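Morning run. Coffee first, then this:
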Amino acid sequence: MEDRKLHGAGLGFRRELLAELEAGVPEAVDFFELAPENWAGMGGRSARQLRAFTERYPFVCHGLSLSLGGMLPLDTALLQQTRAFMLEHGIALYTEHLSWSNDAGQLYDLLPLPCTSEAVRWTAARIRQAQDVLGRRIGIENASYYVAPPGAEMGEAEFIRAVVEEADCLLHLDVNNILVNARNFGFDPFRFLHDLPLERTCYIHVAGHYTEPDGLLIDTHGAEVIDDVWALLEAAYRRIGVVPTCLERDFNFPPLAGLGAEVAQIARLQARVGEALAVTA
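And here it is:
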C-alpha cells in the first residue's frame, strides 16, 4: 500500500473507541496513531477493522517497548515485524520513546536515561540500528520521568540534542511531557522547549495529566489537555511551523465527541498559527 501523507491533527487509535469510530470519525481527525505491538500480526476481525481505517486515513506507528536506551539486545524481530506492518498499511512514520523499558523482561514502564556521553553513544547506536532495520529515519520522543538518574554530565535538552544529532534521527516532541517534568523538577518549560533540536521535529503529542494532592504531576493521558500545554504547543508551532500533532488518550475515555473537540482545538491552533506565519513570511 502506498504511504498516505501525514498532516493536521490526529487521535490515538484505541480498541475502546472502535465502535464509535466505525459509526463516524470526528471531522477534525486527519490521521490516527497506533502502537504496532498491539496490532501487528493480528488477524480476523481486528485486522479487517484496522484495514477499513488504514485504507482511508494516514496512520503513525508509535512504539512502546523497543527500549532504545536499554542494555538488552535490540528486538530486531519486533522491528522487522513492524517494518512489514508499516509496508502493509502504507505507514510512513515510526516513533519511540527516549527511555529504557526492559531488564530481565519488559518492565511496562518508560524509565529515564542518564544524561551522559556514554549514554548518548550507546543510545544513538541503537537508534541507527533500528533505522537500518526499518529502512527509514525514526522520531524519538522526550519522555516524562519522576526520578532523575544520577551522574548527569549535561542537561536533558542537551542530551536529547546530542542523541538526535549522533543518531541522525528525528524528534518526536511531547509538549505535555515537558510541562510534567518542568513542574515536577522546577524548570522553565519554555526555556527547555527552546533548547531542544526543534528543527528536527517530525511529530508532536499533546495529552492530559493528573495532579496528585501534593502537587506532583503524573503523565496519565487520562484527562483533558490543560491551557499550559496548549500554550507550549503554540510556542512550538511558532518556532517550527505547523507539524502533525496527535491527541493522546489512553483511558478514562469521554464520548468520542469530546475527544473530537480536543482534536478540533489542535486544528484551530494549527490554522491560526499557520495564518500568522504566512503573513510574516
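The CA atoms of residues 211 and 217 lie 5 Å apart. Good start to the day.
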